[in-house]
């Protein structure tokens, strides 16, 4: 694939503030007349929306393996139909969650085999990697208090699970320091936004 645009992903545990930050970055880039695609996983597109509904609201139990494959199916459709075509057209794609979510949540959180998740991610995305990934890091108590009491299926997984997810993200950042940058998101929205802009401009 000839890469014309850029691919930036936003990651972190539920309640880390990344969704606010991705919107602020999108506004900032649009203000500079830069063409962006703001998208998310799971749930972009019509098929994605149906998969998202299953993942977040299905009332029966879903095995960790099945859960992984549903996230991966959503991703495969998203990459082929939206992300790759946008990058090829020179757009800056801003994606709220991507491969590192599956590594952090299903790999570290659900304790599935990390190498296997990497292999499956690679298969689902045909190897498409982000140019930059920003992990918004905040302690689990703060992030879960931001989520509040009305929790979906994933958000109900418990404190131990979210500690593993957080440590998973920090481990991923340690392993791929060139691609993955960690920002402490317990700071003010404005300060975190400034750090995001610095990282994106350094690209
Ligand atoms: P969402 O409401 O989009 O959460 P957030 O606003 O925090 O991104 O729900 C997505 C949930 O799915 C979230 O709990 C993280 C989880 N998830 C995984 O477990 N694995 C994945 O591969 C992805 C993309 C998300």
Report on the structure:
The protein has one domain: Rossmann fold. The chain contains 8 helices and 5 strands. The protein has helices spanning 18-31, 45-57, 64-88, 99-109, 114-125, 140-147, 159-175, 189-201; strands at residues 6-11, 36-40, 92-96, 132-137, 180-184. The protein is 56% helix and 13% strand. The protein has a 5-stranded parallel β-sheet, with helices on both faces. With 203 residues, it is α/β, with parallel strands linked by helices. It starts with 5 loop residues before the first strand and ends with a helix. The radius of gyration is 16 Å and the shape is globular. The longest helix has 25 residues, at 64-88. Helix 1 (18-31) crosses helix 8 and helix 3 runs parallel beside helix 5. Bound molecules: thymidine-5'-diphosphate. Thymidine-5'-diphosphate binds next to helix 4.
Instruction: Indicate the mean pLDDT.
Output: 95
Low-confidence stretches: none
CATH class: Alpha Beta
CATH-derived topology: Rossmann fold
The topology string of helices and strands comes to: EHEHHEHHEHHEH
How does CATH name the architecture?
3-Layer(aba) Sandwich
> What structural class is derived from the secondary structure elements?
alpha/beta
The CATH homologous superfamily is named P-loop containing nucleotide triphosphate hydrolases
Distance between the termini: 20 Å
Count the domains: 1
* Beta-strand segment tally: 5
Shape: globular
What portion of residues is helical? 55-70%
- How are the strands of the largest sheet arranged? 2-3-1-4-5
Summed up, the helix count is 8
